Amino acid sequence: MQIYLEDLQPKLKEATIETDLLLEKITLDRSIANEQNIIVEKDTLICDQQAKEAQILKDSCENDLAIAIPALEAAEAALKNLSKADIVEIKAMLKPPIAIKMTMAAICIMLDVKPDKKSMNSKGADNRIDPYWIPATKEVLNDPKFLNRLQTYNRDNISNDIINKIVTFVSDPEFNPENIAKRGSNAAAGLCRWVHALYQYDQIARNIAPKRAALKDAEGTLKSAQELLSNKQKILKEIIDKVNALEVSLNEAEAKKLQLKTQVNDCEAKLKRAEKLIKGLSSEKDRWIEMSKSLDIKYNNVIGDILLAAGVIAYLGAFTMNYRDEAIKQW
């Protein structure tokens, strides 16, 4: 038992050292994790604030554009309702009203179609409008993809040159969809409405251009911050996973240490009880020695005692106690 105890004590000491080292390592890593968590929480707040600011800018841009979107959608819907017959109707006009010619001139300008130079500066001609009628009827309206060109028009990249030319049309009272419809051409009215809608959209888009630029910068900054935050969160997770793994090892080491400690305590308790038992039994030593001597004499006389017992049983059973005692003494 003492040997077993001496074998357990070094193991318990080793387990204690191992547990202390793990606890020290966990304490250090927890401290690092707490510091990293503080950084992550701070960066998370910054990202959240940046996201809110970017969303405010985005909402503001969308709200401003929302003013022009309904008119633009209505104009695009009108374009979808136009048929080839409507186009032929405009093209077939020999003497179109000024409002119709104005509409087609605006369409040519929007599609960046050049005016007919021969028609410019002719007698009684309006150089802003008349030179575009021939290109409109021969080139634009004859294009089988004309309506598709309008429907897929790049409304976000209208050049300044086109806008500077178009502004003279949209500010002209004659260039009005209702007015053009009254002149007998719903198709031209739809085209006019489309030009007005694109101009209005462009003006709003230009007004919110600084907001869009700021939004783009904010989204870029937010993306960079989110990527940085993601990396920091990854590092934090790795540290936490490491701490969790160390805690598992610590629990196992503490369980082993507790088991060894229990075994040592149990062994020490047994040794103490054995020591007490030995001390208690030492007082019986003298009595055991005397008993041993007495047993030795009895062992030597056992054969004679057997003979005497057999004689008494065989011969003295019928006699009195006194006679039996005297007879035994003589034997």
Describe the structure.
With 331 residues, this protein is mainly alpha-helical. Helices cover 81% and strands 0% of the residues. It is built from twelve helices and no strands. The protein has helices at residues 2-81, 84-91, 98-110, 133-140, 146-151, 160-170, 177-182, 186-207, 209-282, 285-300, 302-315, 321-330. The protein is rod-shaped, with a radius of gyration of 57 Å. The two termini are 55 Å apart. The mean pLDDT is 82.
Which H/E pattern describes the elements? HHHHHHHHHHHH
What is the overall number of helices? 12
Beginning-to-end CA distance, first to last residue? 55 Å
Could you say which overall geometry the principal axes of the C-alpha atoms support?
Answer: rod-shaped
**Low-confidence region ranges:** none
DSSP, total strands: 0
Radius of gyration, whole Å: 57 Å
Helix content: over 70%
Q: Assign the structural class, choosing from mainly alpha, mainly beta, alpha/beta, alpha+beta, or little secondary structure.
A: mainly alpha
What profile does the largest beta sheet have?
A: none
In terms of DSSP E residues, the strand content is under 5%
Average of pLDDT: 82
